[in-house]
């Protein structure tokens, strides 16, 4: 499904890493109807996880109320410039996507 990689920006300043992520996903709620009047099945991200240096720094459970191509921003401590951060999501079809970025 997700042929486009996530756009991840991570920047360290004063010991705090700020992360911004743009994910490509249709995020269907299961409540919308198509042009024929049939309900479009739910298909959305359910779990998001962020790890840095093999340590989980974010874990989130999402539902159908998140918008298409979701944007996520968060901060954490305990990493430095040059470390890698990995973002992984799983959706209702059990499809998954993982991408990494270097902390600047």
TrEMBL record:
- List membrane-spanning regions: none
* Gene3D superfamilies found in the cross-reference section: Immunoglobulins
The name this protein goes by in its record: Sulfur oxidation protein
InterPro entries in the cross-refs? Ig-like_fold (IPR013783), Ig_E-set (IPR014756), SoxZ (IPR030995), SoxZ_dom (IPR014880)
Q: Which NCBIfam families match?
A: SoxZ_true
Query: Pfam families recorded for this chain?
Result: SoxZ
Q: Which residues form the Sulphur oxidation protein SoxZ domain?
A: 8-101
- What is the protein's species of origin? Advenella kashmirensis W13003
